[in-house]
Amino acid sequence: MQNAAAPARDAADRPAPVLSVVIPIYNEQEALPLTVARLRPILDGMGISYEVVGIDDGSTDATPMIMQKIRQEWPELRIVRFARNSGHQAALTAGIHRAYGAYVVSIDADLQDPPEKIVEMYELAREKNLDIVYGVRGDRGTDTFFKRRTAGVYYWLMRKLVGKNMPNQAGDFRLLSRAAVDALKSLPEHQPVYRLLVPWLGFSSGEVVYVREERVAGSTHYPLSKMVRLALDSITNFSASPLRLATWLGLLSFLVCFCLAIYTTLQYAFGSTVPGWSSLFIGMLFIGGVQLICVGLLGEYIGRIYSAVQARPAYFVGYDSAEDTAAADRDQRVSEYAA
Length: 339
Hints:
Blueprint: E1 2-3, E2 19-25, H1 32-44, E3 50-56, H2 63-73, E4 77-82, H3 88-98, E5 103-106, H4 117-128, E6 132-139, H5 145-162, E7 170-177, H6 178-186, H7 194-201, E8 205-211, H8 224-238, H9 241-269, H10 277-310, E9 316-320, H11 321-338
Parallel strand pairs: 2-3, 2-5, 3-4, 6-8
Antiparallel strand pairs: 1-9, 4-9, 5-7, 6-7
Helix pairs in contact: 5-8, 9-10
């Protein structure tokens, strides 16, 4: 078992492929064969060397066995298996850090992002010498109304935090050059959110627009709870704005209390001293609510500081087929030399 911080080794000193396709995979036994059947002809037809890095994020169904069976017929498939489920962003991190290619494309296994666009991304990056090519969702008609609205709010808020360098409606379907990958690997992020980190780099970039398709099989692995967590991680990992919000809420609370104090003094001066339990009760609720919000925001940041100080790896790699192949090739060369 390998620590997340352990560097990936070169596969038997072979030349690095031109393209690496990173696919986070979690319980995709139904979708995976369909994804491979659609993806492989596209990559074979590009006429370049490539590898497909499938990150098995601790799947509990038949996904690991299916991946091993596919690899027997598709040697370009490289299997990296986590010791336990660590999450989508951790799987992306492992894939990006361990990919060997001069260009690295990340795509999900549900075929909502069309793999045909990989060719367009690669050609655009080569033609215009770009370090980043984003897959931008031009049409999300297959998503529910609620998901479209919440996604719109998320991207609006993130563009306010990161700036206009962040493309609207760009998810984790993107192409990165080796320079961009090395830059991401150098960042000391404990819980990276690549939708924000990649635009923050400021490298030359382009866009490829596509229509988001329906999930090819299975059910979504990104329910509302994970969407909320992604939004919270995006905000707290990338901006101190919530702490400033706590400051402004505290100031607003002070102003409200100050106004209530003036009102109470005037009522006392004019002899209207009838007890007003309603205003007192509302004031106490308001102050208590603001305090709880501020404490909660501080807790989120302190929790992230505590997690960073612990320095626990985000994932553990239990198996990497490329490294096993590299060891076997080295042993074979040693045996031939000894003979």
